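User: Predict Mid2 domain-containing protein's structure from this.
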Amino acid sequence: MESWSLLQILALQLNFLSLITTISATGQCYYPNGDRSTDTPCYTDGSASHCCGSHSICLTNKLCLSIEQPYQLSRGSCTDQDWRSGSCPLNTCQSAQPGAGAAVVWLNGTDSESTYCCNSVLVDQTSSKKFCSSINGSPQSNFSVADGYIIPGVAGLSDLVKESNSTSSVVANKTSTATTTGSSTTSNDSRSVAIGVGAGVPLGVIAIFTTGWALWERRKRKRASLYPVQLAQPVVANDRSFEVSELGTNAPKPAELYPYPPRG
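Assistant:
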């Protein structure tokens, strides 16, 4: 009986250690050569996932997009240490700089299709033709990149608040269809009302202040027109007074200039 209890305890301990290993492996990311990275998994459902850094945005095409200039695409890491899972960015700069992330640099293309290189692009000075090159200068093949959509709530967008499941599914999945629910509609309406009130209150205060100021100026001018104009007081200088008189209505007008010289 005692030996059976001991076996049960050992089994529980092994299961517990296995659970801890699974949890740590799920949250840990690795580069293609097996080295650990500090990236964050782009999917947190417990399955294998590609990973991106804290200053990058996770994309559904298993690449990362930097949130800093020049907004560079890159190949990050993966939660599968052996890089055998299809959730890893396989065949995308996997052999280029395997112990770190690799930049995915645009080479050329059209509106419908573009080609990319790993880490660097060189230009032939003679023909001005661009081609892919590794860090040591050896030529490499270019490749295309699938369309990608933003995955919110992780990596560089970890602080992004998800408004609803239907909204986030549109952002994260290209083929998904959003279904508007009553709760999301209510939240949108509430946010619209809040924005309208926030913008309307200061505008109303400004309008009231402007109207009051205009009425005050109008009343001030009206009062000023009711009082007679006071004549200027005599000016005294060296014990002598001088009367300051105003021009009458019959004062001579200044001579006008003719457009042409007067005839002699």
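The chain has two domains: 25-172, 180-222.
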